[in-house]
Specification:
The protein is α/β, with parallel strands linked by helices. Helices cover 41% and strands 14% of the residues. The longest helix is centred in the first third of the chain and has 17 residues.
Length: 935
């Protein structure tokens, strides 16, 4: 057993060549007991590693590689406890805040200050200057005795024996134990070329000029334990496990508290939030709130108290109150509009007495995730709000979340091209023509247009390396407005570093990391329309004398609605797009809620769920409105019996299928993500069975579920059958759905049609969802093509996308002239020649051999040379009139004829001309091999 304690991921930007998840999974597969992720002066990748390690038998250690600027001392710091983790984050913050963005500066004294009592240290001495190593070692042992090890990295560079002897001598002199470490930069040796390319990008020097700046081999990877046992002494490997045993910290231990200085003396967070809510309730409803509102307030305050989120709401209220106090327009949005508490606190403007709100859409016990309140501020005054947050809570306790900037097509092509020394003109030309890059399919014509040869090994390597780089993190940027505000210094939770923008600081985690750990943020966003509204108010007051606010603008002006009904809405926020302007004359809004419905209808969910036309027909009196029960009527009456909003779906699940509010929210989350991850099957069975048990018809239950599927956006569910073939975009091979589902074949990426450009794009296959037994039809075209699919399968026609069920005989449907694929598999030349001749030969094979007939002597001789390259295969030439027949026989009786066995494996042996076919494996071949086959 072994634990790797020095490992860099690609969050050591342009150094590490593997994602944290790849490192964790590979370490587990190799049987490691533990893995320390130790990116350089960073913990930016640890949450991804933590998420991957949760389900694996691998202990994850949090650490960081550090270099001291004053003397080059190289250390790996490991967090063995919560206190050590806080010290590590504080030390990283010190280094990052002392240098410009993307750099850090630490000294020995910084390390001694932060790791005074906690933290484990691995030291990598240079072993070239014994006196300098001894002096550094004495300084370290005086301060970190019992928590210090010499890391021995044996990397097969020709000096392993000498390094080990020098390390043992130094350790003996200082009384410091030795431990095995790998200086890992990648999860496998196959990333060596990418790692070298990253070095060239980082150094801004072409790869061919780096020389000794590159590592001499590919040993800085996760190596099998058996290999490590041959290379390292057993006591050094055992010491890695002893260090691992001393680590008792996990990211699951992190606890986060919002600031409490907002709470007056004598109050608790619960009591103060209730007091503010009650005050806001009297402000919102001066004549008294309804019984429904009172019930909502009590329910939501109880839920917030149970989940201990009071301080979060108080913090958002404080920020909004400041903005309003200085005349900055602001508006809460998103799921927070379902919160009556947010409405009472003045954060949102959605009156729960006028709208059907559901707090579980916003906050839920079952979801066990923090709420997410987005607040829009005037974009040109948002900086005032940001600086208020810094003043109020200090930069020690408030920072912006990060955004991870990753490599995309253009940046990958440019950086790899420069690293390989390709001419700038070629790099720029190819990068500028990257429409093809999105789908991952190499368009040889595009490469030629850039003045390059697509068959050139250098160009091939360029494209492959750039493809490998896609999705790699390049650097951290600041989130558009996601603030983390804490009771204690944030650097005890996560390191802080300088942003590119002056007067800004960011943490090293992004919003997904925060969500994974259950940490809360406040989104302080900028909206240009709020600035435009404020300027409009100022102009109206100046020229008309009327002082308007958001609350006093007339909401039901008939003249305004007449303009809207004519689609005279260019420049009108939310209803100025072409799709919205096309809908307005059909729906003819007459009131504010009509606009709410209109905006919601022009969304993929209602369109794909077939909700738009039924609603319009009912609104125009062309279709009867009926409700299967009073409970359903209360939910759907305002939208004429058609579920348009996700909240309505949740309400329906509650009243018609006895879902709890928490279950209804889980349904909402599943239907929002089903096209990416599946997961709706258990909800389908539960929803339908419960609805029918309560007396609702099967037809109604099925219709509701089909509308739920629509909320998954462009899903086009229940389209194809098991025998449908799809193409593997990585190999060019055609696979059936049955093969993929059964596990006989694996499919990672396929080609999909981009609906906007009608170009093929490479898309990752995330899940395959069974839709049970459905009726299917076979569609045949005049050219003889056919497809078996359900009525929901979409086809591109002259008038746009139309489902199969709506097509008529004589309609024109689009078909691709070609599929832009290039295979990468190679076959030996003799196999291609023999296959081509067998496919052309019309003589079926005899039971034990096969013959090839030809009248051309050169053709015959070429076949003989090729077929005799197969194992245990000899060619016998038989002359017949003007031609020849070549018969294959075995050389030795002990083994079968190699050429025959190969033909059997391709399923072409024994078939006559009517039944022979091109084997599927051929479609995986590179273009040169296919050209030879056809020739």
């Amino acid at each position: 057993m072994y634990a790797e304690l020095h490992c860099l991921s690609n969050f050591s930007f342009l150094r590490g060549a593997s994602h944290p998840q790849e490192l964790v999974r590979t370490a587990a597969e190799l049987g490691y007991a533990g893995l320390a992720l130790t990116d350089e002066c960073s913990v930016a990748g640890v949450v991804r590693a933590y998420t991957a390690a949760k389900e694996l038998p691998l202990k994850l250690v949090i650490g960081s590689e550090l270099r001291c600027a004053d003397d080059g001392l190289e250390l790996v710091a490991l967090a063995e406890s919560r206190q050590a983790y806080a010290a590590l984050c504080g030390l990283i913050s010190r280094g990052r805040r002392a240098a410009p963005k993307g750099e850090y500066r630490l000294t020995r004294d910084d390390v001694a200050e932060y790791f005074r009592t906690h933290g484990l240290l691995l030291w990598t001495p240079r072993l070239a200057d014994p006196d300098a190593d001894a002096a550094a070692g004495r300084w370290l042992t005086e301060r970190f005795a019992g928590r210090l090890w010499i890391a021995v990295e044996l990397l097969n560079e020709g000096n392993d024996r000498r390094r080990l002897a020098a390390a043992r001598a130094l350790g003996s002199e200082l009384g410091v134990p030795l431990v095995a470490a790998g200086d890992v930069h990648m999860h496998g040796r196959e990333r060596r070329m990418l790692k070298d390319t990253l070095t060239a990008i980082r150094r801004k020097v072409p790869l061919g000029e780096l020389g000794f700046e590159l590592h001499s081999n590919a040993e800085r990877c996760l190596r099998p334990v058996e290999e490590l046992e041959r290379r390292y002494p057993a006591d050094l490997l055992r010491e890695s496990l002893a260090i691992l045993d001393r680590v008792n910290f996990s990211l699951a231990e992190l606890r986060y508290e919002y600031p409490y200085e907002l709470i007056p003396p004598g109050e608790t967070p619960t009591s103060y939030l209730r007091a503010l809510t009650e005050r806001g309730c009297r402000w919102r409803w001066p004549d008294g709130e309804s019984s429904r509102v009172r019930e909502l307030i009590e329910h939501e305050l109880t839920l917030i108290a149970e989940l201990r989120y009071e301080a979060y709401f108080l913090t958002v209220h404080d920020i909004v109150s400041y903005a309003r106090s200085v005349g900055i327009l602001c508006q809460g949005r998103g799921s927070a509009a379902n919160s009556v508490v947010c409405f009472c606190l003045g954060i949102t403007e959605v009156d729960p007495d006028r709208m059907q709100t559901l707090v579980e859409r916003f906050i839920s016990k079952e979801r066990n995730e923090p709420p997410d309140i987005d607040v829009d501020f005037e974009h040109d005054r948002r900086e005032e709000v940001i600086q208020y947050i810094y003043r109020k809570y200090s930069r020690e306790r408030a920072a912006l979340a990060a955004t991870v900037i990753t490599y995309r097509g253009r940046s990958a092509i440019r950086d790899v091209g420069k690293a390989l020394g390709i001419e700038e003109a070629h790099v720029g030309a190819l990068a500028r023509s990257l429409q093809w890059w999105e789908n991952g399919v190499i368009d040889d014509e595009r490469i030629r247009e850039a003045g390059l040869d697509p068959k050139s090994p250098k160009v091939w390597r360029w494209i492959r390396l750039a493809e490998s780089l896609l999705g790699f993190p390049r650097h951290l940027s600041q989130h558009v407005g996601g603030f983390v505000i804490a009771e204690r210094p944030i650097h005890e939770l996560v390191p802080i570093e300088n942003a590119a923008m002056p007067e800004r600081t960011v943490i090293q985690w992004d919003k997904d990391d925060l969500e994974e750990l259950g940490l809360m943020k406040v989104d302080v966003l900028g909206l240009g329309m709020l600035s435009a509204i404020r300027r409009s108010f100022e102009l109206i007051e100046r020229f008309d004398g009327r002082k308007l606010t958001m609350a006093t603008v007339p909401s039901e002006d008939p003249a305004v609605y007449r303009m809207i009904q004519k689609a005279d809405t260019i420049g009108v926020f939310q209803i100025e797009s072409r799709a919205q302007m096309a809908m307005l004359p059909r729906l003819k809004p007459k009131a504010y809620y009509d606009l709410v419905i209109e905006v919601a209808l022009v969304r993929p969910g209602p369109i794909q769920g077939d909700m738009v036309h039924p609603y319009l027909r009912r609104r125009n009196g062309e279709e009867t409105i009926d409700y299967p029960s009073r409970e359903v009527e209360t939910v759907l009456k305002r939208t004429l019996g058609v579920p348009i909003f996700q909240e309505q779906v949740m309400h329906l699940a509650i009243v018609a299928a006895d879902f709890t509010p928490g279950e209804a929210d889980q349904l909402r989350r599943a239907m929002a993500a089903w096209k990416h991850r599946g997961g709706l099957e258990p909800f389908e069975a539960k929803l339908k069975s419960r609805m029918q048990a309560k007396g609702y018809s099967e037809e109604f239950a099925n219709r509701i579920f089909q509308q739920i599927l629509g909320f998954g956006e462009y899903g086009f569910p229940e389209c194809v059958v098991g025998e449908t073939r799809v193409v593997d975009a990585d190999s060019g091979r055609w696979l059936t759905i049955d093969e993929i589902v059964s596990g006989r074949a694996r499919l990672k990426n396929t080609l999909a049609c981009d609906e906007a450009t009608l170009h093929f794009r490479k898309r990752r296959v995330l899940s395959i969802t069974s839709s049970g037994v459905k009726q299917v039809w076979r569609l045949r075209t005049a050219l003889g093509h056919s497809i078996v699919a359900t009525a929901e399968h979409p086809f591109m026609t002259i008038g746009g996308w139309v489902t199969l069920g709506k097509l008529r005989i004589g309609d024109y449907v689009a078909a691709a002239r070609s599929v832009p694929l290039s295979g990468h598999r190679r076959w030996p030349r003799h196999q291609i020649i023999v296959l081509a001749d067998l496919l052309a030969e019309d003589d079926p094979c005899s039971p034990n051999t096969f013959r090839f007939h030809t009248t051309a002597t050169r053709h015959r001789d070429e076949f003989v040379r090729a077929v005799e390259r197969f194992p245990n295969t000899r060619a016998v030439v038989e002359r017949h009139g003007s031609g020849s027949a070549v018969r294959v026989v075995r050389r030795g009786r002990a083994r079968p004829i190699g050429a025959v066995e190969w033909a059997r494996s391709l399923d072409i042996w024994g078939r006559d001309a009517r039944l022979k076919h091109i084997p599927p494996e051929v479609f995986e071949l590179r273009d040169q091999d296919i050209a030879l086959l056809l020739a």
